[in-house]
Amino acid sequence: MNKRLLLLVSLAAVALLLSGCTEYNQPISESSEGFWNEFIVWPLVATITYFKELLGTYGFAIIAVTIVIRLVLLPLMIKQARSSKSMQQAQPALKALKEKYPSKDAVTQQKYQQEMMALFKEKGVNPMAGCLPVLIQMPILIGFYHAISRMNNTPSIDLGSFLIFPLAEASIILAIIAGIMQFIVLYTGPAMDNPQMKVMMYFMPIMIIGFGVVLPAALTLYWVVGNIVSLLQNLAIYRPWEKKEVVTAEPVQKQPVRKQPVQVKSGKPVKTKAGGVKK
């Protein structure tokens, strides 16, 4: 599982970097041509601009659009979280299946796969639930990157600042905040109890910080707000403060050792455990 997640994140990172090599430095307008511009970039720009007119600044507009996007994806994210929680609960049974079918031959592995899928169905586990939200969010994330970059290169648009952070420039402070928030989100989610996902708990924040120090602060702000929403989701679903009590095994009571009566070769009478006399 961890290899698949690492591969997915690596591909996403490459896609994000390569996506900036096309038209990111060109102005954006309603007349921009191309599928990507017409159906991804411009709708995001228009939505951000609409909320800017309502709220007064592009910073608040990006926050509002981020919340709207997260609310739209919320049912899918909840389904992913519940599937991850079910996967945690199925781990003991899954371990027992691996012990039941240790052989690697085709017949044994087929039986193992059949029983594993039956177990997933019984526990309500969807193995693809963890990847689907990431796959859906990647076009949005790349689209946000293009939208912010092209808005920054459009003379009629001034992104301005949010608090002390110029949205058109990279911000190390905001990048660090985004990385810390990403760590907290993973810490309060299923990664903490899943050894296979623990590597993501340390890899993802570093990756977020790495991108944040070179990308516009407007995109980093999107990550920060998105992670705040994810944190609230984790608190509602996983309830990390309700740590399971560690059940300590009761000490095994040793059976009393039954002493054998001492055999004396001299023929002297010896008392046995029952109180009798053995000659």
From TrEMBL:
Intracellular or extracellular location(s): Cell membrane
The entry's keywords: Cell membrane, Chaperone, Lipoprotein, Membrane, Palmitate, Protein transport, Signal, Transmembrane, Transmembrane helix, Transport
Spans traversing the lipid bilayer: 58-78, 125-148, 160-187, 199-225
Basic residues bias spans: 268-279
GO CC annotations, alphabetized: plasma membrane
Region (Disordered), start-end ranges: 251-279
Domain of life, per lineage: Bacteria
Membrane topology: Multi-pass membrane protein
Domain Membrane insertase YidC/Oxa/ALB C-terminal: 58-239
Feature: compositional bias, Low complexity: 251-265
GO molecular function terms attached to this record: membrane insertase activity
Any GO BP: protein transport
InterPro entries per the UniProt record, alphabetical: YidC/ALB3/OXA1/COX18 (IPR001708), YidC/Oxa/ALB_C (IPR028055), YidC/YidC1/YidC2_Firmicutes (IPR023060), YidC_ALB_C (IPR047196)
PANTHER family: CYTOCHROME C OXIDASE ASSEMBLY PROTEIN COX18, MITOCHONDRIAL, OXA1
Family: Belongs to the OXA1/ALB3/YidC family. Type 2 subfamily.
Biological function: Required for the insertion and/or proper folding and/or complex formation of integral membrane proteins into the membrane. Involved in integration of membrane proteins that insert both dependently and independently of the Sec translocase complex, as well as at least some lipoproteins.
Entry protein name: Membrane protein insertase YidC
Origin species: Planomicrobium soli
Gene name as annotated: yidC
